[in-house]
């Protein structure tokens, strides 16, 4: 038996979200049917608002309602440091810490030859332009500790260093509260490489 077309379309729509398979999409679709009309309307308005009212900052590439974004407009931020991240959600994670007071640059992805993602497919060119326009002394690369993240970090480092700008990488290693015996080899290696004097 097939689902009526409106439910089938809703299931298909939910399946387009990352990590949502057939069973979860079906459960969400039937949950949506049971929701009150005003809740569904508010949900739909939120989806439309995100697509209509948000765009990317023309300077850093972060999501924003106004251009340039609030961070780029903030005159109290340290303009000599730019922290480079993969996605806008990474900016939010760093801002929660309330300890970094520099600027950001969002790549919107990483280099991945296997998926056909090259330097021209992510937000690298505007970063290089910023190095000419602003008084940047340090680029902090904060891509994830994946093969693609490491490759992107190395590529950016080779691209930026000839300009005489310091390039650093976020430390990787053991997380606070974890046991050494449960850490994998790569994490332990990064922890040893990133050691510091006490």
Primary descriptors:
2 domains, alpha/beta, 13% strand, Dna Topoisomerase Vi A Subunit, Chain: A, domain 2, Helicase, Ruva Protein, domain 3, 198 residues, 44% helix, four-stranded parallel β-sheet
Separate helix tally: 8
Helix content: 40-55%
Biggest β-sheet, characterized? 4 strands, parallel
Kindly report the oligomeric state of this protein.
single chain
Counting DSSP E segments of at least 2 residues, the number of strands comes to 6
Rounded mean pLDDT score? 92
Q: Percent of residues in beta strands?
A: 5-15%
Rounded to an integer in angstroms, the radius of gyration calculated over CA atoms is: 21 Å
Number of domains: 2
CATH architecture of the largest domain: 3-Layer(aba) Sandwich
Query: How does the overall form come out from the CA principal axes?
Result: globular
> Could you give the order of the helices and strands?
HHHEEHEHEHEHEH
* CATH class membership of the largest domain: Alpha Beta
Q: Give the neighbour order of strands across the main sheet.
A: 4-3-5-6
State the low-pLDDT regions, or none.
none
How would the blueprint of this fold be written?
Elements: H1 5-15, H2 22-34, H3 37-53, E1 55-56, E2 63-64, H4 70-73, E3 78-85, H5 88-97, E4 102-106, H6 125-133, E5 138-141, H7 147-160, E6 166-169, H8 185-193
Parallel strand pairs: 3-4, 3-5, 5-6
Antiparallel strand pairs: 1-2
Helix pairs in contact: 1-2
């Amino acid at each position: 038996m097939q689902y009526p077309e409106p439910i089938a379309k809703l299931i298909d729509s939910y399946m387009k979200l990352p990590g949502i398979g057939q069973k979860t999409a079906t459960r969400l679709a039937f949950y949506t049917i049971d929701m009150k009309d005003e809740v569904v309307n508010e949900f739909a308005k939120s989806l439309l608002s995100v697509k209509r009212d948000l765009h990317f900052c023309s300077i850093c590439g972060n999501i924003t309602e106004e251009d340039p974004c609030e961070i780029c407009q903030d005159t109290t931020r340290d303009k000599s440091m730019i922290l480079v991240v993969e996605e806008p959600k990474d900016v939010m994670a760093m801002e929660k810490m309330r300890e970094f007071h520099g600027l950001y640059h969002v790549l919107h992805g990483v280099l991945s030859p296997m998926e056909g993602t090259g330097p021209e497919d992510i937000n690298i060119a505007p970063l290089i332009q910023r190095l000419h326009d602003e008084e940047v002394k340090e680029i902090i690369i904060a891509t994830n500790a994946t093969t693609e993240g490491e490759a992107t970090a190395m590529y950016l480092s080779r691209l930026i260093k000839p300009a005489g700008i310091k390039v650093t990488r976020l430390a990787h290693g053991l997380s606070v509260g974890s046991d050494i015996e449960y850490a994998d080899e790569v994490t332990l290696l990064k922890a040893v490489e990133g050691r510091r004097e006490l």
